[in-house]
Structure formats: structure tokens, C-alpha cells
Design a protein that fits this description.
The complex is a heterodimer of chains A (258) and B (204). Chain A contains ten helices and twelve strands. With 258 residues, chain A is an alpha/beta fold. Chain A has one domain: Alpha-Beta Barrel (TIM Barrel). In chain A, strand 10, helix 7 and strand 11 form a beta-alpha-beta unit. The radius of gyration of chain A is 17 Å and the shape is globular. In chain B, strand 5 and strand 6 form a beta hairpin. Chain B is globular, with a radius of gyration of 15 Å. The chains are: A alpha/beta (258), B alpha/beta (204). At the A-B interface, helix 2 of A face helix 1, strand 8, strand 9 and helix 6 of B.
Chain lengths: 258, 204
């Protein structure tokens, strides 16, 4: 049976590891390469690196991080943040990433998804979406709106509709990140995750709000997610990969043994 | 020295990085002469079967691979390299290298609601012992990304299977040729062991 995947997200700024809380405060918490190596050895299934470097002229640091990671860990990983063109995507893939993660640039120019899927195959293109809960309206019937710029800019785009569009354009996976839940450690946005998982046929990765193994169980069952992203609960050592996996296996989920 | 066959099909560098990490001498080459003379060959690949076959033919790598197979060179196919060694692929209705009789078929899951591609970690069950899979234990998982799967005509060519909607072959082989549908180079320490086993394998 296909396993539910446990994925960790590492935010990288200027080549250093950072963790954001509700997208506002970020603090540096170490070296991304050695952290990736630790998680690889601990039996994590996949990694995501998000480049949150502010200035675009310092993006080469990220390419260096990607090639160092690729030389040391032998599980799939994706890279996102600041990828605006097929050339940007090509650079991180050549440096050794398995997949690219596109977000804001795809909202602003959806053709990017199709171009990347044509160039690298759908399996290499992950569409990440940041979603904010709003009052349902004719424009946002689901009550979930796509936002960019770390949640500051609402785009007047319904999240369910955007997920379907992303799949049609050629995305191979979706990361559904709830801005409301992100950093709270109070649990994933189950309703949002389930509605998107039911609207598309590609794998859905739940993101934002994971604080306990129970939260992962909820989103991988009720939320119908194929994978769950974990960040602070691992980064701050509150739980280990083994503990999370042992819990989920104990609850009857198909999980890759560590 | 292992030669990684370069035919514009994706994951060459991930295979190379994995071999470097294991300290196994290797080179990437698109030259049919190098492939012909190579003492050991890895034939990886992601992408489309038809595109892959076209590049192999244009570069003369198809006959080089057939010759190497005929003279007993150990060959390891990965992903697309596990599919186009068969006689035919449904992907683009493409004739394959026909080193193993059989076809490569598309997953059809309309009624079961399973997602295609089959992507992620899945359990691999050894059905026939092989030196390349010697370390596997029941429950071991490997990383998959594919929409097509190999279907050798003869059961004796199947060495391991995987369950996704049904049981399908994921490791196939004959004589000095062995091939994996999963990505050993992305399957953690267990996957690296597969590559290491291949580097040491002496087909009888």
C-alpha cells in the first residue's frame, strides 16, 4: 500500500534556516544542510526548502544549499520561493531538487505552471497555495481565498477554483497552506484540506498548524490529505520523526518505517 | 567503472550523486562506443517512453545497449529504463528495446479512485531472490513516480512486486539485465544498498 508521507518544510533565508510564525516573525534556527541530513537519517519521507531570502541578487546562495543537500540526502525534495520563470525552476532542478514549488508567481502568471510542467513533467511541479479564511461571497464562494506576499495580499481568487485550475495547467501536487493555522500548532485546517482534496485528483499536502501527531492523523484521514507538512513540532525537538511515525502507524495508517 | 547512459531523460545526476556518495566510480556518457565497451551500465530515466526511444535511436545507443546486453555486461534499468527494455510501451504506442518479452501498460483506476501517477513510498515484496535485492526485508519501502508499469510476458522475469490497486511487477530481469520501476537513488539508505548491490553483482 502507498504510504502517507511525512514531509518537513525548511525555510531558508540567506542560506540559513528560519522558521516563521504566522508569517510575521522569523528567527534563524540553524544550518539547512545539516538539518536536512538529520531528518534524512531520522527517516523523514521528503523535504521542502522554501527560500525566503528577501533580495533576489542573493538567490545564488540557495542554489549552493540545494546542491549540498542533493549530495547528502537521497530522498525526494522540492524547492520553492522566488521561482518566477522556467529558467529559475531549471536551476534548482539541475542543482539536484526533485521538484519545484511555485506559489505567488503562479498566481500572478498561471502559465508558469503549464510551462514548467511541459519542460520538466507534471511530477516535478508542485503548486503551493496560501489560503486565508474569509466570508463567502460571490467571488469567493468557498470562503477560502488565495493570498500572496506571506498572507498580506488577498488575490480575489477562490482556493477551490485555483486548485482545480492548477491541476488543469499541469501541477503534479498541491501544497495547501492555511495562513490561519500556520504557526499556531493547533491543528491543520481540516475542512479546507478535505475540500481541496475532493476537488482534484492529484496528491494534496496539508500545511500549517501541525502541533501534535494527532493533528497529522486528523488531516491524513478526515482531511483526506496524502501527505502532511511538519515544521516547528520537529524543528524545536518537540517530537521526533520516529515518534510521529510510530503514532500514525499505531493508529492504522500506512507509513514508511524509519 | 559504471557508465550512466545519457539520453536526455532526467535523473542522471541524482544517480551520479548517489554513486559518488557510495564511492563507486562512474561516468555519464551519451557515446555508444563508451556504452558498448563499458564494464557496467546504469540506464536511468524519467519522462516519456517515445521521447526516450527516439533519443536512444538518434544517438545509436539502442544498438549499443543491445550489444552490451548480448555480451553479458551487467545492466541496471531504472524507471523509464525499466519500461523501454520491454517489447512495447503503451506510452506513445512505442516499440521498446525488446530485451525482455512483455509490454509496459498504463494504470487504469477509474472505478477505484486511485491517483495516477503512483507517487510516493510503497512497499516492495520480493517474489524471487536476486543478488541486487538481497538485503530487502518484508515491509521495506521505496520511492515511486510513474503512470506506466512493466508487464513481462513470463513470470520468471519478475523479481518483486508492489501493491497499488493490484499487484504489479516493480523489479524485472533476465540474465545480466536487472531493472527497477522505483527510484533507488531517491529511496534512502535501502535504495543506496540496491545500487551498491548492483555495483558488486556478477551475473552467472
Amino acid at each position: 500500500m502507498l504510504s502517507k508521507r511525512i514531509i518537513s518544510c525548511l525555510d531558508v533565508r540567506d542560506g540559513k534556516l528560519a522558521k516563521s510564525v504566522r508569517f510575521v516573525d522569523t528567527k534563524d534556527i540553524g544550518d539547512p544542510v545539516s538539518q536536512a541530513q538529520k531528518y534524512y537519517e531520522a527517516g523523514l519521507d521528503e523535504l521542502v526548502f522554501y527560500d525566503i531570502t528577501a533580495s533576489s541578487d542573493r538567490r545564488d546562495i540557495m542554489i549552493e544549499v540545494v546542491s549540498q543537500v542533493a549530495a547528502q540526502i537521497f530522498i525526494p525534495f522540492s524547492v520553492g520561493g522566488g521561482l518566477r520563470t522556467v529558467e529559475d525552476c531549471s536551476r534548482v532542478l539541475l542543482a539536484g531538487a526533485e521538484k519545484v514549488n511555485v506559489n505567488s508567481a503562479a498566481v500572478q502568471r498561471p502559465e508558469l505552471i503549464a510551462e514548467a510542467a511541459r519542460a520538466f513533467g507534471a511530477q516535478a511541479v508542485v503548486l503551493s497555495m496560501d489560503v486565508l479564511r474569509v466570508s463567502p461571497s460571490p467571488k469567493i464562494p468557498s470562503g477560502y481565498e488565495i493570498v500572496i506576499q506571506g498572507g498580506r495580499a488577498p488575490m480575489g481568487l477562490d482556493a477551490i477554483e485555483w486548485a482545480r485550475r492548477g491541476e488543469d495547467l499541469g501541477a503534479g501536487e498541491l501544497v495547501v497552506n492555511s495562513i490561519d493555522a500556520d504557526g499556531t500548532k493547533e491543528g491543520y485546517e481540516i475542512n479546507l484540506t478535505r475540500r481541496i482534496a475532493e476537488a482534484v485528483t492529484i496528491p494534496v499536502i496539508a500545511s500549517g498548524g501541525g502541533g501534535t501527531p494527532e493533528h497529522l492523523y486528523e488531516v491524513l484521514t478526515d482531511g483526506k490529505a496524502d501527505a502532511a507538512l511538519v515544521a516547528s513540532m520537529l524543528h524545536y525537538g518537540e517530537y521526533t520523526v520516529s515518534e510521529i511515525k510510530a503514532y500514525l502507524t499505531g493508529r492504522g495508517l500506512e507509513i514508511r518505517p524509519v | 567503472m559504471i557508465t550512466i547512459v545519457d539520453y536526455n531523460a532526467g535523473n542522471l545526476t541524482s544517480v551520479k550523486r548517489a554513486l559518488e556518495h557510495l564511492g563507486i566510480a562512474n561516468q555519464i556518457s551519451a557515446d555508444p562506443e563508451v556504452v558498448r565497451r563499458s564494464e557496467r551500465i546504469i540506464f536511468p530515466g524519467v519522462g516519456h517512453a517515445r521521447a526516450a526511444m527516439e533519443v536512444l535511436q538518434t544517438r545509436g545507443l539502442d544498438s549499443a545497449l543491445k550489444e552490451a546486453f548480448g555480451r553479458g555486461t551487467p545492466i541496471l534499468g531504472i524507471c523509464i529504463g525499466c519500461q523501454i527494455i520491454l517489447a512495447h510501451s503503451e506510452e506513445g504506442d512505442t516499440p521498446g528495446l525488446n530485451l525482455i518479452p512483455g509490454v509496459c501498460a498504463h494504470f487504469q483506476f477509474q472505478e477505484k479512485g486511485l491517483k495516477v501517477p503512483h507517487m510516493g513510498w510503497n512497499t516492495v515484496t520480493v517474489t524471487q531472490n536476486h543478488p541486487v535485492l538481497a538485503h530487502l526485508k518484508p515491509g521495506d519501502s521505496f520511492y515511486f513516480v510513474h503512470s506506466y508499469y512493466p508487464q513481462p510476458a513470463e513470470a520468471s522475469h519478475v523479481f518483486a512486486t508492489c501493491d497499488y490497486g493490484f499487484n504489479f511487477p516493480v523489479a524485472i530481469g533476465v540474465e545480466n539485465l536487472f531493472a527497477l520501476q522505483f527510484h533507488a537513488e531517491k529511496s534512502g539508505p535501502l535504495g543506496l544498498r540496491v545500487l551498491e548491490n548492483f555495483a558488486r553483482w556478477t551475473p552467472c
